Amino acid sequence: MPISDERYKRARLEGFHRILAAAGVSVARPALERAYDASGAYLASVWASHRDITGEEHVRAVLTAADPALPQRLSPAILTALLDAYSRPALIVPPTVDPGALGALSVLRARGLILAVVSNTMRTPGATLRQLLAHYGLLPHFAHTTFSDQVAIRKPAPEIFWLTLKAVGGEAESAVHVGDDPVLDVRGARAAGMRVIQVGSRRSHRGAQAEPDGVIPGLAALPDMITKLAER
């Protein structure tokens, strides 16, 4: 999944403007755009503490930035429609996935490994990301999915990894996390007591303070790397 889904900003704002206008609420498009950007600053402050909020709270943050009294003026049905407008653009124009993902997951699952997702969300909620995984045929391979907006914790906090391990009955010392970010994935999984495979080049980060156990160019190489780690 992309690290940011700001590509969907226009579609979200158009949806908000249409729904609010139909409900008899007049909010100028420039004001909505400023509110969307202001909500981004608020989200960044929340995420900086390795915490997260729900999609409903995202919507309320945008509305409040436009008019502090606006959320209270809207019915639950309108708020639900706004959440759908906020979430749906990623389904209409899906992000790309690693072309080796499906094959790698199929091989690993056939070996009897338990697979799970640990993912930070951006503006697209975890419920929508599950639909995207299903769209690409990936979801059935996972025994569990953990999305930050649903558990209120973000990587690199070790708690999000521990929650996932508990859900699948796994132990940190026998688990391997796979991700591309040197801080969120490598440092985060290390803090949780897990081994880590980094996807892509061995990118470093001043705040990473951890090294992966292996590096692969793409997910097609994941089964072989898992075998190598098992032999160490």
What is the CATH-assigned architecture of the largest domain? Answer: 3-Layer(aba) Sandwich
Which homologous superfamily in CATH is the superfamily of the largest domain? Answer: HAD superfamily/HAD-like
Q: Name the strands of the widest sheet in spatial order.
A: 3-4-5
**Tally of helical runs:** 12
CATH class of the largest domain: Alpha Beta
Query: Main β-sheet: number of strands, strand sense, barrel status?
Result: 3 strands, parallel
Provide mean pLDDT, rounded: 94
Helix content: 40-55%
Secondary-structure element series = HHHHHHHEHEHHEHEEH
**Radius of gyration of CA atoms, rounded to a whole number:** 19 Å
How many distinct domains? 2
Key features of this structure:
232 residues; mainly alpha; Rossmann fold; 2 domains; three-stranded parallel sheet; two-stranded parallel ribbon; 12 helices; 5 strands; elongated
